[in-house]
Amino acid sequence: MPTPTEISRDWQTSRPYVVKCIKKGCPIDSFENARLWREAHASKRATTSPVQIAKQLQEEKDDSSAARARRKAYYERRSDRARLRKTPSDASLDEALFRAIRASDEAFRLLKEAMIEGRVSQISARLAVHNKALETRFKAERLYREELERRRILIPLAEAQDTARRIFGIIIARLHALPQNCAPRCNPNDPHRAMEILEDAVAGIMAAAHKTFANSEK
After folding, report:
1. 22, 31 in Cβ contact below 8 A?
2. Domain ranges of the chain
3. Mean pLDDT per segment of 10 residues, for the chain of length 218 residues?
């Protein structure tokens, strides 16, 4: 952090003048911010010099050009991001987060301008906007992470139905074959009796399963 003496050397002016400016709100966290504040507050009286007026008009024109350049870069970045997306749902998710980040960055830029220029009447309002934008950004980032995690964990319905169909097919086939395959081992002396008992058990299981499925469809 520069001292008033160092700032006075940078401004090529006296130290008391710098101290006076600091009391009026000049930032001293960096030489750049101090210079910006001085440029905004060094003269409160409108100039009558044609040379100075022309210079100010040119600066305003340059500012407008810079604003147009920022807008162009913004839309180019957004187009680049859109080309990288794969599905409409991904596009909506990314765009929501991207907008929240852009809003937060812009709110901070406006707040910083008000602080550097010492516009006290605007600082509190812009601070509130900045805090709200940060809150929205953090919420968007949290929801973004949760949604990505959900998409990695949950299985699409069609895929889940196909998997369940294949699994139940195997179970049903094994149940139907169970009496014939296991009856001789259950009762070697009377395998037919064991098969009847096992077939009744399998039939009961299938009947209960069909009943539960029918009730779930109502």
Report:
1. no
2. 1-45, 46-84, 86-154, 157-217
3. 87 85 85 80 50 53 55 56 48 79 88 82 84 90 83 75 90 92 91 92 90 76
